[in-house]
Prior knowledge:
The protein is of the alpha+beta class and 437 residues long. It folds into 3 domains: 4-148, Beta Polymerase, domain 2 (2-Layer Sandwich), CATH 3.30.460.10; 263-387, no CATH class; 393-436, no CATH class. Helices cover 47% and strands 12% of the residues. The protein has helices at residues 18-29, 39-45, 62-70, 122-126, 151-156, 172-184, 190-197, 206-218, 223-232, 235-238, 249-267, 277-288, 296-303, 307-321, 331-341, 345-353, 369-379, 393-398, 405-420, 426-436; strands at residues 4-5, 11-12, 33-37, 54-58, 74-79, 84-89, 92-97, 100-104, 112-116, 137-139, 144-146, 159-160, 187-188. Helix 6 runs parallel beside helix 8 (206-218), helix 9 runs antiparallel to helix 11 (249-267) and helix 11 packs antiparallel against helix 12 (277-288).
Amino acid sequence: MAKIQTLSGEWFEPDLPGRLLKIAGDIREAGGRAFLVGGWVRDALLGKSCRDYDVEVYDMAQDALVPILSKYGRTNLVGKAFGVIHLAMKGLSLDFSFPRTESKVGYGHRGFVVHTDEKLSFKEAALRRDFTINAMGMELPELTLCDPYGGIDDLKTHTLRHVGPAFAEDSLRILRGVQFASRFGCTLAPSTVELCRTLSLDDLSIERLFEEFKKWLLKPGKPSLGLRAFLDIKLNEYFPEIRPFENSWDALGAILDNMASLRDACLTGNGTCSLSEAQAMEFAFAGLLCGCAETSLKFLERITNETHLLKVVPLVLNAYSTLDTAIVNDAPALRRLAVKLGGLKLLCLLVKCTPQEFYADATGDGECFADRLWNAASDLDLIEEAPQPYLMGKMLMDMGVKPGKQMGEIIKKSFELQLDGEIKNAEEAIAWARKNV
């Protein structure tokens, strides 16, 4: 198995299917050349395993490649316009494509004419790619690096640099720069910043916008670097709903980084609680929008139709922006807040992410407000869910109360007493009801 020397100087043996290497050997014997391209190459140079194998085949026509691939599994021409052949094998699927050029002829991400040409050089074909760190290839089976635009140097210096003028033909690449900056710890090259500032996101669907924001906020990385790229490109002018926290973009960046660390710990079981995928997404967007509770819904409606985000995030942010530190000593207020939010988990996590200098000292014993809030909510069993009424309709029916307005008022009054701490269990709720029916 071939090995790669990573940027750190260590030797790394990537995860490569033996069948892929055999196919590459057959392609070479037939006069063609096979290259792994894109993210696989970038990740391998960083010493990371990647099982997303994109293969470009040079010096070989489609009619010659299909018989070779058919020996290994079922082939399907899934992208005739783009020259993509999908190969399905037992336990493995691979995509093979041909070098191509793209020309912008219309509006939106579908407004491209694609020309495949197996005689293109790797350098010519790589001109259509976005950043130099994604414009590298490794020829199979030896994994010989082909890097016509200095991607490895930019990877070493943590620089995101566009490959060429074709970058401007897909405005989504502006947001890709933001999420790549976060994921790979990069800053944008000045020339790339200037080019991005000339482009508009107006031709992008909300689905495409949302996907890039999710990658920025949810994939492992350092989101504050994505925020730096966001600001460098002046995307805050396009998305004015996103605002700094307490007039500080640095504070917002710190919150985003804290959010990412805490979220990842919760998702892997190493945190103070667990998070579902939906909760992780709510947490991430709440972190991004924590400086702008009043405009959070407007921003979310611009990029998504996800009902849970549109409902949960503004609610949590409204509570967060008006939170009084005295609430940790007010059990009834905590219970009512939990009812409003469906549990205090996201609010408590967001407070944990906030630099504690933004809160007054909680006690003289060094315990910060975030810890006090979490402990108070935990002691009242309010982290995961809101309190549920002890008194139920069936209990009242057993007492002879008929369903209707009176029953609803009795349950509501009982629940208010429960939230105040005056009713502590179902038995006490029933006893109270017997006296008041």
